[in-house]
Structures are given as C-alpha cells and as structure tokens.
Amino acid sequence: MTGSTAPAARGSRPGSQATPPAPAGALSGAAGPAQPSPPRAAGPAQLPPERLAHLIAELQGHGLRVEVEMERRRGGAGPADAGMLWIDGHPATVPTSARYARSSPYVLRAEDDGWAIYRDGERLAPAEPMRRPRFYDLATDDGIPYWKIALLHLDSLASTVIQTCAYWGNSDQCAFCGIGVTLANGRTIAKKTPRMLAEVAVAARDLDGAVDVTLTTGSTATPDKGALYVAACGQAVREASGLPVEVQFEPPGDLAVIDRVREMGIDSVGIHVESFDPRVLARVAPAKARTGIEGYFRAWERAVAAFGRGRVSTYVILGMGEDPDVTVEGCRRAIDMGVYPFIVPLRPTAGSLMAQVDPPSPGYMESVYRKVAPYLAAHGLGGQGASAGCARCQACSAIRLLESAEGGDGGGPRTFLPLAGPGR
Fold it and tell me: The pTM is what?
C-alpha cells in the first residue's frame, strides 16, 4: 500500500460475526452500544510512583478478581490472559482468568462514580477498566472482523501479522509462548495483509484513540525470520495512519535486513532475547539459544546504529528459573548499548508448555526492577522516550514507575504522541 489513506471500513453486517464473544466474567445483561476507549488524560496521581509500582507488581503476580465488565485477552503472543485497565491513571495489564487469579486477594469493584482496586475491603487505588473498542464492530469488505486482525491494548494497536511459527509444535517451541492458541480457537486469522492492517489502524486511530502500533510475527523458515514481511505491514500502517510503528522479529541471518527495515520507515524495533541466562534460554527457547545471547547483542548493535538509542528494545521475562545477577548484568550491558530491556513477569498461558508454572513473586520482580531502573535513569534511557511498542506502552511491567524514583519521569503524566504524518 502506497497511499496515505486506507479503504473505508464496512460496518458489521448480518451473519458477519464481527462482534466477538463477551469477555469472560462480564456482567450479564450489559446492554447498549460499545463505548470508545480513548487514551486517558492523566489527572493528579493519588499514589506515589513507588507505591503504585508495588501495587501493579502485586496484581501481575497474584492476578485480579473482577466484578465489572472489562476488555480481556486470552492466548496469543502478547499480553496473554490480560485484563486491561488504568490504575491511578497508569496503564496496566493483569491476569484475570488464570487459575491463580481466582484466589487473588485483589478485586476490581464498581463505585458510585467509577471503579477501584480493593484488598480485604480496603480501597487501594482508583481504576478504570477498558471497554470494548468501537472499531471491533467493523469488518473488511470480505467479512473479516477487525478484532481478528488487530486488538487494542489500552491505547496501543497490536497484531501478530503471521500467527504461525516455524517453532510451534516441535522441539524448538518456546515454552512460554501461546502464539498458536489464539489461532486454534478461532479468534484470529493466520496471516494479516498490509492492506488489512492499514485499514484497521485508521479505524482504531479515529474511533478509539490508538496512538501507536506494535506488530510482531511468528518466526518464519526464511533467512530474514519474517522481518521483512512484518516491516512491510508496518510501512503500510504508517503511511495510512501516520501512527508511530514498532515491529518485532528475531535476529535475521543477514543483519543488513535490519537496515532495510529502517529504510521502510519503521520507528522502532523489538528484538526479544527473553532471558539473559543461557541455561534458561536453552531450556525454554532452543531456537533462540542457537542464535545465542551474543548473537542478540550483535543484532542490537546493528539496530541501534540504524534506529538510535532507546528505539530498540528486548523483552526480559522473569520467573523461568534465571539467575537474577546474570539477568541484571545483561540488562545493564544492553542499556550501555542503547537497548531498553523491558522486564516483565512470566504470564503462564493456557495452551503453552509453561501453562502450569506459577508466575514469579511480586517481591522478586520488584528486587530486579530496583536494580535496573536506576541504571536506566542514569543513562537517560527511560521508557518515556519510546515512540512505539512495549517500551512506550509499559502496561505489562511496573519498571517505568520506578524509573521516576531514580530521576526519570516514569510517574509523570502519560505522553500521547502527535500523529507523525506520512512523510516522516
């Protein structure tokens, strides 16, 4: 797609199945049209950043029981089993349907003029659950519901453009991943085209206030690992919508592919090592282990040269048996290079090989956050500088809030980016 606008969307038609099933746990009898989910203008925070970080770490470790309707997600390769909400103005995704969430001491309750998080009857923080986006009511001309093409994660549009992976279902399958789960249960399609994604991005921007786009892909059995296709999708999205775009892929066999991704107008990249502990990587992600942690550092070096400091990120998943000292050392080395390590707790996903593993304790998460956040702040590499992707959204981690305690602005108002325009 080369134009600056996407084709007009078609409304939901009889028989088109454009409306997904109600979220699990939604209040029965809810009626009325879908409500938009625009970015929330952050008001005065009621909790200091460190207390809010502690609460979010607790919720991501123990889960959240819900007594109200909210938008949720199951399976997939992103924030799996995620209830999406704002807590004291800060975006958060927390487990709501996992087995351990059912016994969580935390509960989301409606109040006379809003919602709040409670524990043992004590009100801890105001909250606002995400409602179903309006663009989910639309479908493409050939009847594909928009919600099968991309989902809104609070204010960030996200899609797995190729919902299959060369490693899924064989000895190379990443133990933590659920990429095949969503496809198997019919909640997505196997391959999204650039045109589809551009069309949906414009609708998500106009109807629901999406401010950036994150595109990932299952790894392909090609030398570029799928990087060029996901970048082509990102290029179409950016040209149509003007939204900043991050694409995520494995290190390609030829690192010059990273330069080609940048030339396609992509704003930032995620190249996810998952764990800095080589023992853990070999156990949970054998194919990534063959690339090797040094292979990731070489890819990041090339990506930082192409995109700039703070425009390259990596997921770092805690709770898989990793050595915390090795993890912190790897994070600091990445930061020195200009790579943002996005530290998240393991989110055990139904249908994955780690479905029965318990998430890491909130105390463990906070201990690692507190060793990495000061280093991020000292190097001026906080999440507030990111233009797109997980490092901008920050809903799956509490680390940005702790960056503010070390001289960053992680606890300040959430930044909503202006549209970039097709011409960069």
Answer: 0.86
